[in-house]
């Protein structure tokens, strides 16, 4: 999520995916929902559907491979749904919540002050959990994206506060790590993925930096040396152990692939393709292909722009990864 006006300067299954065979699916999935501006997308193999959020309406919907959109879940506490992830272990759909001032429910008491996650049963749509993270830190807050580990812990980035939260398997939240490396202008921490070797990969939208967060024996933040920084780096999806697909916006509007041969101390950057329409914000894999969500939020922020209700899940070509 990186969508306030000052930020226009330029989620999926969380565990590592292996695509086999690659590039067998639909080149683009177009769907329609009235001015929803979905910021994130996640695939559920069990439901055989994509789940998408909404920055403007704070809802969650389902999108079929044929592009049919159906409303799925809503709640009065959902000002704007950012990162969406499917929790296969619990069969829940989680959303990171933040109010950046573009929601139909935005107010001075919530804008820039909201950080929470919410979960719904992926079959019934019944609300299962709401976890407020705002009391854990002071100042501006914006829960952006989330990831799970095999034990059921949930990790959440905050784009305004320089922290990563963790919610344990008993749903007790705390600040996992606070770092000066996470500070910056406008939107900062963004996409997050849990690596099967037991660490986190996190991107920073404002500067295009990426971090490797060790969880054991103690929590440590290490900068990943990239062949090129990626300002505007938004949603990410881990493919295998050595490949990370990134949606990059901020005027660049493309999908890129990071590959690492040394356990994410360093990574090489390769462009996978430009977005077909504006402002890509998320990527997800359905087990065969990787799709990038182009959410058009630039047209929502620009008061002179015509508002849109058509959005695209664009397939991107991903190279082989172990």
Provide a quick synopsis of the model.
The protein has one helix spanning 297-301; strands at 28-32, 41-44, 49-52, 60-63, 69-73, 81-87, 92-97, 113-114, 116-121, 127-132, 141-148, 154-158, 163-167, 173-178, 189-195, 199-204, 210-214, 220-223, 225-226, 233-239, 243-248, 254-259, 266-274, 280-285, 290-294, 310-316.
- What's the total number of strands? 26
Major pleated sheet: 5 strands, mixed
- The end-to-end span amounts to 28 Å
CATH architectural category: 6 Propeller
Q: What is the SS-derived class?
A: mainly beta
CATH class: Mainly Beta
Number of individual domains: 1
Rg computed from alpha carbons, rounded to a whole number of angstroms = 17 Å
Order of helices and strands: EEEEEEEEEEEEEEEEEEEEEEEEEHE
Trace the largest sheet across and list its strands.
8-11-12-13-14
Percent of residues in beta strands: 35-45%
Low-pLDDT stretches are: 4-15, 18-24
Average pLDDT number: 91
Query: Could you name the CATH homologous superfamily?
Result: TolB, C-terminal domain
Envelope shape: globular
CATH topology: Neuraminidase
Total number of helices = 1
């Amino acid at each position: 999520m990186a969508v306030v006006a000052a930020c226009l300067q330029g989620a999926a299954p969380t565990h590592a995916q292996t695509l086999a065979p690659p590039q067998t699916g639909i080149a683009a999935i177009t769907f329609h929902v009235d001015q929803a501006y979905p910021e994130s997308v996640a695939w559920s193999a069990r439901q055989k559907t994509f789940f998408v959020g909404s920055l403007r309406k704070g809802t969650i919907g389902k999108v079929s491979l044929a592009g049919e959109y159906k409303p799925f879940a809503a709640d009065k506490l959902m000002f704007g749904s950012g990162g969406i992830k499917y929790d296969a272990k619990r069969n829940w759909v989680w959303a990171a919540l933040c109010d950046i001032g573009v929601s139909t429910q935005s107010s001075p008491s919530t804008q820039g002050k909201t950080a929470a996650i919410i979960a719904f049963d992926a079959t019934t749509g019944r609300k299962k959990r709401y976890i407020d993270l705002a009391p854990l830190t002071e100042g501006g807050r914006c829960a952006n994206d989330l990831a799970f580990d095999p034990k059921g812990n949930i990790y959440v980035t905050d784009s305004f506060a320089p922290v990563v939260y963790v919610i344990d398997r008993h749903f007790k939240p705390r600040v996992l790590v606070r770092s000066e490396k996470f500070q910056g202008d406008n939107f900062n921490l963004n996409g997050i993925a849990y690596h099967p070797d037991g660490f986190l990969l996190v991107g920073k939208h404002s500067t295009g930096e990426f971090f490797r967060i060790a969880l054991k024996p103690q929590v440590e933040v290490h900068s990943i040396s990239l062949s090129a920084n990626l300002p505007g780096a938004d949603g990410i999806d881990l493919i295998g152990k050595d490949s990370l697909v990134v949606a990059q916006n901020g005027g660049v509007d493309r999908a890129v692939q990071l590959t690492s041969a040394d356990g994410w101390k360093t990574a090489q950057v390769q462009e996978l393709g430009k977005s077909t329409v504006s402002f890509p914000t998320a990527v997800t894999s359905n087990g065969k292909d990787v799709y990038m969500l182009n959410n058009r939020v630039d047209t929502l922020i620009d008061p002179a722009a015509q508002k849109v209700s058509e959005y695209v899940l664009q397939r991107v070509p991903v190279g082989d990864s172990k």
